[in-house]
Structure formats: structure tokens, C-alpha cells
Automatic annotation (TrEMBL):
PROSITE patterns from the UniProt entry: PCMT
GO MF term set: protein-L-isoaspartate (D-aspartate) O-methyltransferase activity
Organism per entry: Nitrosomonas nitrosa
Name of this chain's protein: Protein-L-isoaspartate O-methyltransferase
Function: Catalyzes the methyl esterification of L-isoaspartyl residues in peptides and proteins that result from spontaneous decomposition of normal L-aspartyl and L-asparaginyl residues. It plays a role in the repair and/or degradation of damaged proteins.
Catalytic activity, reaction form: [protein]-L-isoaspartate + S-adenosyl-L-methionine = [protein]-L-isoaspartate alpha-methyl ester + S-adenosyl-L-homocysteine
Family indicated by similarity: Belongs to the methyltransferase superfamily. L-isoaspartyl/D-aspartyl protein methyltransferase family.
Gene3D superfamilies: Vaccinia Virus protein VP39
Length: 237
């Protein structure tokens, strides 16, 4: 778990281009998170105690531009600029639970976006790697994670289609953008016995969230539920 993370967040105004974020956790935002977890996540069947604790702990509003921060704890995705969004809280929790993240897991996330999903993962395990293809968002995610005290996350600006071979194999891979197919490099980098969660399908239509497992050299897929994610940009092998 992220043992070095600060539990009390300072009052700090962070300027990032045209974005401004009030980096402060208050009684009001903590109450909003409790309500979010109770009504949007636990009530819909998420039971993993590590996931519920992580969703309560991560200050979601710190990962959203100020002009959208009022929607931070709503039951909806929120725009973060550059045509990207921060996923609906339930979807973040669901994907994290299905991935079965353990405290000693090495996890790769494709599509850092604002850094929020990586922060949730960092509450559960000590080794998180996240890739973002948009340079501005990669810098934004790195700065947000640093400010929030998640020093166990490495952020890389690159094409996530090809994964991060230097740190492979991974116990879990979470892809937070829709791909027309499962990228072969990510399958190669998935550890034996590992799990990958990825939305597959046309990025401009409803996709299917797919669980990919690798066991005994065999790759299996299981359709989970329909979702709607922004497209995975980059390589198309």
C-alpha cells in the first residue's frame, strides 16, 4: 500500500496551463467520497475491501480541472481536456476489483489520463506503472500524483499500445481506453496467471469490457459488460 502518502492534503493552488485545481481535502469532500462509495459502488455489488478503502481514500477532486471539480463525486465520467475523461467511479471500482490487485502486485495502466485510476491502484499495491500518450496529460497526471503523495507510481509519456516492456511481466494490466482488438504487446507483457481488463470495440460505439487471462500459456477472454470509453490512440498492429 502507499504507506508514504500524506493523509492530510495542504491548501495549495496548482496552476497547469489553463487548468487550476484546489488541492485541498475537506470534511465536505471526504463526506462526498463516503456517499459516493456507499451509493454508487458498494450498493452496486463491489465488495473487495481493498477497493472500497481505496475509493474512499483517493481525493478524486484533486485529479479533475477546477471548472469540472463540482462533478468529481457524481455518478458519471468527467472531462479532463484533450478529448479525454476520468471514468465513472463505479467503472473504476469495478475494473479494479475484477483485476484482483494484490498488495504485492506489479500493475500496468494504459491511459493515465488525470492519474486517478493510478492513484486508486497505488492505494492497494506498491508498484504501479502508467502510460499516457498525450504529453500534457502525462505531465498533469505526474504532478497530481506527486502532490497527492503517491510516490509509488511511475508515469511515462508514450504509446501505451506497446506497453512498458522494461518492467514486464505485470500481474495485472488495466486499459482505460477502447481498442479495436487486444494489443499483442500487452498480452506478451502479462504475467503467467495475470489478468488484463480492456474495453474492446469501435471507440465511437458501445464497447465490451473484456477480461483477459493467461494460464498455462493459453490466453482466454471473457466478456464482462458493455461500456463506453474514449479511443486508444497509437499503434495498431
Amino acid at each position: 500500500m502507499a504507506m508514504n502518502r500524506q493523509r492530510l492534503f495542504p491548501v495549495f493552488i496548482f496552476l497547469f496551463g489553463a487548468w487550476t485545481v484546489q488541492a485541498k481535502d475537506t470534511d465536505q469532500t471526504r463526506l462526498a467520497r463516503e456517499e459516493m462509495v456507499a451509493k454508487q459502488i458498494a450498493a452496486r455489488g463491489i465488495e473487495d475491501s481493498h477497493v472500497l478503502r481505496a475509493m474512499r481514500a483517493v481525493p478524486r477532486h484533486m485529479f479533475i480541472p477546477e471548472n469540472e471539480a463540482r462533478f468529481a463525486y457524481d455518478d458519471r465520467p468527467v472531462p479532463i481536456g484533450h478529448g479525454q475523461t476520468i471514468s465513472q467511479p463505479y467503472v473504476v471500482a469495478y475494473m479494479t476489483e475484477i483485476a484482483g490487485i494484490k498488495p504485492d502486485a506489479r500493475v500496468l495502466e494504459i491511459g493515465a489520463g488525470s492519474g486517478y485510476q493510478a492513484a486508486v491502484l497505488a492505494e492497494i499495491t506498491q508498484e504501479v506503472y502508467t502510460i499516457e500518450i498525450v504529453p500534457e496529460l502525462a505531465r498533469w497526471a505526474a504532478s497530481r500524483l506527486q502532490l497527492a503523495g503517491y510516490d509509488n507510481v511511475q508515469v511515462k509519456q508514450a504509446d501505451g499500445y506497446y506497453g512498458w516492456a522494461e518492467h514486464a511481466p505485470f500481474d495485472a494490466i488495466m486499459v482505460t481506453a477502447a481498442a479495436p482488438h487486444i494489443p499483442p504487446p500487452l498480452i506478451d507483457q502479462l504475467k503467467e496467471g495475470g489478468k488484463m481488463i480492456i474495453p474492446v470495440g469501435n471507440p465511437y460505439r458501445v464497447q465490451m469490457l473484456v477480461l483477459v487471462t493467461k494460464q498455462g500459456g493459453e490466453v482466454r477472454t471473457q466478456n464482462l459488460l458493455p461500456v463506453s470509453f474514449v479511443p486508444l490512440t497509437g499503434g495498431r498492429e
